[in-house]
Structure formats: C-alpha cells, structure tokens
Amino acid sequence: MIAAAWHDGTVTAPLTPPHQPQPNDPWQAPPSGSHVLPGKDPDARERRTELLQGALVAVVLTVAGVALGLLWLWLAPRVPLVSDDTTVFLKNSEGEEAIGADGTFVLLALAFGLVSAVAVFLLRRRGGIPLVVGLALGGLLGSLLAWGLGTWLGPTSDVVAHAKEVGKGVTFDAPLKLHAVGAAVLAWPIAATAVHLGLTALFGPRDPEPEWMSPYGAQDAAPGGASGQTPGGAEGAAPGSAEGQAPGGGRPSDGS
Question: pLDDT class for 46, splitting at 50, 70, 90?
C-alpha cells in the first residue's frame, strides 16, 4: 500500500511499508529457533538408506569369499614334493605349479569383482559413494577370507611332518600359498570398483538439463513487434504524424 501526505501545498514522498513476506513463500527463511523434525528430512532418509545398502553389499561380498576360497582350493594346481628321509625338494623343479596358484586366485578374484559390480549396478543404477565403498571393503574382506580358507583347508603347512608321514620317495602336495599376496588380495576390490564406476558413468541416470524461462533474445524485442519500432507502426516517427512534418500538418517554419 502506497500513501502520500499533503502538507503545506506540497506532496511529500510516498510512504511504503516494509516488505511483508507471504506465508506460503518457499524462499522465506524459517523463523528463528525453528528446526526440521527428526526423521522428516528426505535427504537424511536417503543417506541412511544408501549407508545401509553399502553395509549390506560389504557383508554379502565378505560371505562370498567362502565360495572364492573353495574354488581356489579346487582349481589351483598342486605343487608336488618328495622326500629322501633327509630333505624335502620339488619333484618337478621346472614346473609352473608354484605361480599357478597365484594366477588362479587372481583370475577368480577378477571374475568375482566383475560379477559383484554388475549385480550391484543392476540393483541400484544411481550408484553412490556408500555402494562403491561397500564394494571395495567387501571385496577386500572376501579376498582375505578366501585366502585364509584355502590355506586352512589345503595341504598342511608342516612339510617335514607330512614327509615323514608319507614315507621316503612318496609324492605329496605342498601347502597352498600365495606368493604375490598384495596383487592377489586387491584384484577383487579394484575390479569391482572400476567396473561399477564405468557402468555408472556409461549407463547411469543423468541429471535433467536446466530449462530456460524464455528463449534467448526474446526480451530484446519490443512488445509491439520488431526492435526499434513503436507500437503504432513507423520506425522513429510519432503516431499520427508524417515524417518531416509538424504535428499540425504544415511544414516546419524556416524562420522567414
């Protein structure tokens, strides 16, 4: 509401009351001391859901390490040993069984990482940091569990006692070991995170493009038509008068 005051024959400046925000204005700041009730914030609920999903992924992948350990125990090549009652040595000194156990574990871990990344992406295409952390942590714990399980269920690590038990000249299997422990254990988490990030970047949902309120350049045009023209018609001429003529109809006086 604008009010003007008449004082001593002069009009003073209009008095404008301060801006009063509308009660339904979405941009209005909340009153002092107000706060969002616990459990009512949708962003907090979404973050809590993502954390739970990431923790669930980590637990499931850790348990899947049992399958990796059993497969490694089953598929890894055995290293044959033999004893002559005094020394235990390799039966085939030129064999590649020793590095075959590492290669088998790494290939199986890469396959587990690929499958777990695809499964997590199909279940939740939006991705998120908790899921990536769950993939990495679960793959690491699963690899450690598989390594320990395969070593525990494999041939005994007491080679001397095993050689005495089987006797002289009898071939027996060496303990199942990992020589490149770092590369073998990290194969699963690295493969899982890399594949998941790649799938999210290629096939994940995209954020919507911002919509412009009006076409570019539309506000430059005059309301009545082309730019630089008056609503009445002719460019640069006042309505109702011809170019070069006075408003009364005659030509302008030259002073004579």
Answer: confident
